[in-house]
Design a protein that fits this description.
Radius of gyration: 30 Å
Helix content: 55-70%
Oligomer: single chain
Shape: globular
Number of strands: 2
Order of helices and strands: HHEEHHHHHHHHH
Largest sheet: 2 strands, antiparallel
Number of helices: 11
Structural class: mainly alpha
């Protein structure tokens, strides 16, 4: 019996060695996510900008540079945003207006302020006739264009009406700047209803770019060279 065990033992060891042999496994590392381009990140009222359009990209980058900390009084703009947005946001929501329109007063009156050469005034830069047609008092004694709450309600009514005409928030913003009649005329004349492809006057052609730029510096201030002062940080924390 001892010989039998002595003879078969080496064979058993060989079997065990074969069974325990480790088979190498190749592990493929996960693919790194491609960085999202700047243009793919930018939207207005959830409407995207055209991709792979060099003309649009060039205009957008130029507008962003113009709205950087070095070019704008962004400390002042952030203070105004902290004061105005709590009033504006719930009114826009009540009327079903995208929140991105809250940046319009910052572009309209936050940057330049005062009364325009054409007579537009107030937070939303209403012309006197347009302001009256949407329920604001404008006379020698009272100018409700300078009342943030009342003028925002009027602006929301106007913006909602513009959307019923154009059905596109980007066109609505452009029409707010240039007037709905002029915008409709240009759409018919050019047979084009894509704002980014239309040929418009200089101010209106850059208007939506300004809104998007304002949104960017407000939402990503550090990216554009802005550091909030301590008093503003404390105000937002309250």
């Amino acid at each position: 019996m001892a010989k039998v065990f002595a003879y078969h033992l080496p064979q058993a060891e060989k079997v065990l060695v074969r069974q325990e042999k480790i088979v190498p496994v190749t592990i493929t590392p996960p693919k790194e996510k491609e960085p999202v381009s700047l243009m793919a990140q930018l939207t207005f009222a959830d409407e995207t900008l055209p991709q792979d359009d060099r003309r649009v990209e060039k205009k957008m980058k130029k507008s962003l540079r113009n709205f950087s900390y070095a070019k704008q009084q962004t400390n002042r703009l952030h203070r105004k945003a902290a004061e105005w947005f709590p009033v504006i946001e719930p009114i826009l929501k009540q009327y079903g207006i995208p929140e991105d329109f809250k940046y319009m007063p910052l572009v309209e009156s936050g940057v330049r302020g005062g009364v325009s050469p054409k007579g537009a005034a107030g937070y939303w830069q209403f012309m006197p006739g347009t302001a009256r047609s949407y329920g604001l008092k404008v006379n020698a004694k009272v100018d409700e264009r300078n009342n943030l709450r009342k003028s925002t309600i009027a602006a929301s009514k106007y913006i909602k009406e513009l959307y019923s005409i154009f059905g596109n928030w980007t066109l609505v913003a452009a029409a707010y700047n240039v007037g709905d009649n002029h915008m409709r005329k240009q759409i018919r004349k050019q047979k084009e209803d894509d704002y980014f492809k239309m040929k418009l006057n200089r101010e209106t052609a850059g208007y939506v770019y300004k809104l998007i730029s304002m949104k960017q510096i407000m939402e990503n201030p550090g990216r554009y060279g802005y550091t909030a002062p301590r008093e503003l940080i404390a105000m937002n924390a309250e």
